[in-house]
């Protein structure tokens, strides 16, 4: 009994002496929770930025446009102009996110395995347009990892609209429908089990040009922005961005940067259920 009173007293003195520390720790953990759980952030994240492939998608220019924005958001970015980095286990294991802008081209089996194993263990994977959604056409496992593959862009450079279909997701929250001018509207083959955040509709007058034969896709609604899991890793894709000037549209840049931040946090949170079948059955 006496011992218990003594212990209580000791504990009270301990609390008194350490109250500032305890309160500070409480606030710190609360701030960490609110930052990372609710609003994904690029702050302090280790990013590998890989660029190359077909020049028509401005891979080099993409580094000048996007990398400063990632660094301004607090990310630690390392830039590579080759796919060999995917075989460097030490660099890959250490990364929170891989951003890839590499249209077409070929990936070796070893390079793919390095990329795949990093993502399976929780490293995120992200990119846009053909740099991610039209890379390594002969690698089916890669296409499954992305969740879609470019097929064609009806009408070439056209004007089209984007509809946000998920207004609650942190990536597309508070973003209204918007339009794009004189750029490519991707028609893709898409995994029907991803979480689609934005779509676009093919409108006849926009893509059918006089005298030009086009495969008819009028009325088709195409996923444009989606997220999915791959192992423990988070995968984020947007099909916008043929020209780097597409990122001058504030909504495009905002969605892409938020997507990067979300994808960079796979190692720090429990996996979300993102299997969202397009066709639902009981
Ligand atoms: Zn393109």
Describe what this molecule looks like in 3D.
With 282 residues, this protein is α/β, with parallel strands linked by helices. The chain is built from eight helices and eleven strands. The chain folds into two domains: 1-29; 42-263, Class I glutamine amidotransferase (GATase) domain (Rossmann fold). The chain has helices at residues 2-38, 59-72, 89-94, 109-120, 129-133, 140-146, 204-207, 250-263; strands at 46-53, 76-80, 97-103, 124-128, 148-152, 157-164, 178-184, 187-190, 195-201, 221-230, 233-238. It has a nine-stranded mixed β-sheet. A two-stranded antiparallel sheet has the order 5-8. A hairpin with a 2-residue loop joins strand 10 and strand 11. The longest helix has 37 residues, at 2-38. The N and C termini lie far apart (62 Å). Zinc ion binds at residues 57, 129-130, 184, 242.
Keywords:
9-stranded mixed beta sheet; two-stranded antiparallel ribbon; 35% helix; binds zinc ion; Rossmann fold; 2 domains; 11 strands; 282 residues; 8 helices; alpha/beta; globular
